[in-house]
Write a structure and sequence with these properties.
Helix 1 (about 15-25) packs across helix 3 (about 50-65) and helix 7 (about 160-170) packs across helix 8 (about 185-195). The radius of gyration is 16 Å and the shape is globular. The chain has a single domain, classed as Rossmann fold (3-Layer(aba) Sandwich). Helices cover about 35% and strands about 30% of the residues. It contains 8 helices and 10 strands. With about 220 residues, the chain is an alpha/beta fold. The N and C termini lie far apart (about 35 Å). The strands form 2 sheets. Strands 5-6-4-3-7-8-10-9 form an 8-stranded mixed beta sheet, with helices on both faces. It has a two-stranded antiparallel sheet with strand order 1-2. The structure holds S-adenosylmethionine.
Length: about 220
């Protein structure tokens, strides 16, 4: 189980991170049906971490999207993990074996400010390295869906601030969505003030609530 000493938190649910991704991020953004109708789909993610969310999304995109549909996945990460750490963490999921190999084949040994990794002819991973508060304002993509996956808000307030939620809204298409495993009141208020309609839904495993919503 990858754990950050710096932030005092786990990277994903101790119960099953892959199923958590399915519940919170894939279903929280209604991606199975949205993938099936999309020609080109853009996802933004706060916190690339081990890449588990990306690889599970890649697996489901291959399953639900049409053959020629494109996926652009933009993920923001301040402290990229090594290939060894990622491989060790994610190899417990046999469902992701193919996707993990595809990803490791293009992952650089050393990180620069940003990387555009061509996973296959349809899927592009844009890795933005650095503090997202500095790197997101420099980007000009508009996402169909956002995964808000910083560490717990109480442990990493800068990933959930009002200013950052405004940037998220600026980088979201009209009608675009977000989801997150946290339902902390101040995070919900920041998202609402930034221009999202926010809804509480059932959380994953032992968690009572999570949130999802739409730019209105
Ligand atoms: C909960 S983990 C993300 C888990 C990840 N989505 C996965 O699939 O493994 C949170 C991530 O946010 C990153 N992070 C924390 N603060 C950040 C910041 N200010 N800017 C960019 N990334 C940050 C951490 O290094 C960590 O990798």
């Amino acid at each position: 189980m990858p754990y950050s000493n710096e932030f005092g938190d786990y990277y994903y649910s101790k119960s099953d991170g892959r199923l958590e991704c399915d519940h919170v991020f894939i279903n929280g953004n209604d991606l199975k049906s949205r993938f099936s109708g999309a020609k080109c789909f853009v996802i933004g993610e706060l916190g690339f971490g081990t890449g588990l969310n990306f690889l599970e999304t890649l697996r489901q995109f291959k399953q639900y999207a049409n053959n020629n549909a494109k996926l652009d996945f933009h993920s923001f990460e301040i402290n990229p993990l090594s290939a060894d750490t990622i491989q060790k963490a994610l190899s417990i999921w046999p469902q992701l074996t193919d996707e993990l190999s595809q990803f490791l084949a293009v992952l650089p040994n050393q990180f620069e400010n940003s990387h555009i990794l061509q996973i296959d002819e349809n899927v592009t991973l844009h890795l933005h390295i650095g503090d997202v508060n500095a790197t997101l304002p420099e980007q000009n993509f508009l996402a169909d869906a956002w995964y808000l996956d910083g560490f717990a808000p109480a442990r990493n307030e800068s990933m959930w601030s009002m200013d950052l939620m405004i940037e998220i809204a600026k980088h979201t298409k009209e009608g675009g969505t977000f989801s997150s495993y946290t339902a902390a009141g101040w995070v919900r208020r920041n998202l609402m003030d930034a221009g999202f309609k926010v809804q509480k839904t059932k959380g994953f495993a032992g968690k009572r609530d999570m949130i999802c919503g739409k730019k209105s």
